[in-house]
Amino acid sequence: MLNHRAAGLTDAQAVALNRWMLLTRRLDERLSVLQRAGAIPLAVSSRGHEAAQVGAALAFERGVDWWFPYYRDLGAVLVAGTTPLDVMLSAFGRAADPASGGRQTPYNWGDRRLNIVARSAPVGVQIPQAVGAAQAAVRRGDRTVVYCSFGEGAASQGDFHEGLNWAALYRLPVIFLCQNNGWAISVPAERQVAGGSIAARAVGYGMEGIRVDGTDPFAVYAAVRRAVLRARAGGGPALIEARVHRLDPHTCDDNHATYRTASELAAARQQDPLPAVADYLRRAGLLPEERAADLERAVAAEIDAAEAQSRAAPLPRGEDALGGVTAPPAPGHP
Ligand SMILES: Cc1ncc(C[n+]2csc(CCOP(=O)(O)OP(=O)(O)O)c2C)c(N)n1
After folding, report:
1. Is 52 in the pocket of ligand 1 (CB under 6 A)?
2. What are the pLDDT digits (tens) for 113-125?
3. Whether residue 151 has its Cβ less than 6 Å from ligand 1
4. Whose CA is nearest to atom 26 of ligand 1?
5. Cα diameter, the chain
6. Alpha helices (H) in 147-216, listed in sequence order
7. CB 138 within 8 A of CB 112
8. 68 in contact with ligand 1, CB cutoff 6 A
């Protein structure tokens, strides 16, 4: 693991990074339990992706930058400002859900207050949208950089190629983060990624491509931070491929034991970023055991409160069911 100071993080920032990763993991686990209990309809696990998501998201500026995350991006949207309560309100389909008022499938993150733009279900559609937002930022003359994230499966879509071409052509401030977990549901990367590397494609577009160990949050932070600073200074986009492991099935509706071997899964679990970062901080003297236990308790309490508040929150009104999901209807339209 890269030394956190070498990555440009203070001790306090490294400790905070670990807290974001833990919050992501524990919230994710709670959502899975709630789904299994029949309390919520869907769980899309981010387990194994936390280091890539949190490390990358911390390199951006809240309130200035724009976010085009994908469904597995729980860690990124938390860092962007989404609270566990917002996540639970969405999971329980409550009216106060900031993404869609409880009317969109959960995990389609969105929040106007935080510049998080809701995506729709086809994979990769957020890529040209993110490029458009970056172009708008340049035209407005503001200093926004855009976070655009997706899996390697989405990188096989036409939207990926169009988006990267346009972003490079106009040197737009957008960072493309490919979280490569080697699987698009049950299809292994070898069967749908030509050339074997997503990052290597960047050369063809004339932008920098970087491959980084997505289980090392400090290495991801350093790589993304450098790209963000360059993009903010007018240096154009970058494509960052973070190699991660998907520790869970694609979603709660999938059983990966039917297409992954026990030995592949066991090897992936050996590279779980959560214990690795906690261990790094403990050895650096930044997270003594009693503080780690306090942190677990505080995170659990935050999640308990979010769940209880969401369970008690009102559902959307039936009269609103046919209204716009992410925007009010255009004039003249119902
Ligand atoms: C255009 C399109 N094709 C297929 C699907 C069905 N689908 C949903 S998620 C997914 C896998 C995408 O894998 P990847 O982009 O690698 O991300 P991961 O889920 O592995 O994080 C697929 C095929 C879809 N939503 N949209």
Report:
1. no
2. 999 999 888 999 9
3. yes
4. 122
5. 63
6. 158-169, 202-205
7. no
8. no
Domain ranges for the chain, please list them: 11-307
Encode pLDDT of 151-205 as tens digits. Answer: 999 999 999 999 999 999 999 999 999 999 999 999 999 999 999 999 999 999 9
Q: Which residue has the tokens 């930022």?
A: 137
Q: Which atom of ligand 1 is nearest to the CA of 157?
A: 1
Give the three-class secondary structure for 288.
Answer: coil
CATH topology of domain 11-307: Rossmann fold (3.40.50)
Tokens of 280: 């790094």
The pTM of this model reads: 0.97
Distance of CA 173 to the CA centre of its chain: 18
User: Tokens for 39?
Assistant: 């309390």
- 132, two tokens: 């458009």
Contact, 151 vs 124, CB < 8 A?
Answer: no
Contact 219, 213 (CB under 8 A): yes
* Ligand 1 site, residue 66, Cβ cutoff 6 A: no
- 3-class SS of residue 248: coil
The two tokens of residue 304 are 């308990």
